[in-house]
Amino acid sequence: MYNSQTYLSQEQISNIQAMMYKITWRIFGWMFLGVALTAVSAFAANYYNLSRYLTRGTVIGLVLVQLAIVFIFSSQVRHARAGIATAMFLVYSIITGITFSTLIIFYSGASIVSGFALSALIFAVMAAFGFLTKRDLSSLGSVGYVLLFGALLIGVANIFLHLPMINLLINYAILAVFIGLTAYDLQKVRRSVTELVARRSSAYRESDVAALDASIRSLSIMYALSLYLDFVNIFIRILSITGDRRSSN
Known about the structure:
The chain has helices at 10-47, 56-76, 82-106, 109-132, 138-161, 164-202, 206-242. The chain is mainly α. The chain has one domain (15-242). α3 (82-106) runs parallel beside α7 (206-242). Belongs to the BI1 family. InterPro entries: Bax_inhibitor_1-related (IPR006214). Its main location: membrane. It is a multi-pass membrane protein. This is BAX inhibitor (BI)-1/YccA family protein.
């Protein structure tokens, strides 16, 4: 196991930092690819009018598939091959795009564009903060997940209560949670990638280096999915709060 107290030369430290930045940008690259694939899938599904097939049962089925992918990711990613992890991430992005095709129906194009731009700005600011800050954000993650779970429970209850104000408060709460989780996830990415790269630099056997390289590739996809989910949820909540709905006429 890698010992953070192991002496490293200045050259090794520089190499570790350079590789850490390279891998982090690769993670962002996968995340951006996922967002782009979701956008293309959404517009394609809308163009070909696939939304007419999105019945309640179909949407529930797609959501269950997405949940299954996330569960497999979180439980098996360290053992999964990078190719399989990548394929699952891309499939997830496409499915999300198909379900998002309804947004084009319900919200104006200007609302979608402005909501996307605002989401990108918020994500970029919080990502930079999480990546650069020296403050420990671990508590932000644990509190965020608790608040998210509570908001989802209230949301389920409000399905039967039909209180618009509760929906608005839930949107604000979930937006705040994912803004915080963006910073938390970026700090987690930096720490995890730095540790893996340092362990790789200290490894002597080729088999250990190969195993760590495989872990880095698989974990890169997992972290890309985490950041993707942060961004997508920020976008959805901003659109729900500020978006102009199309006229039903």
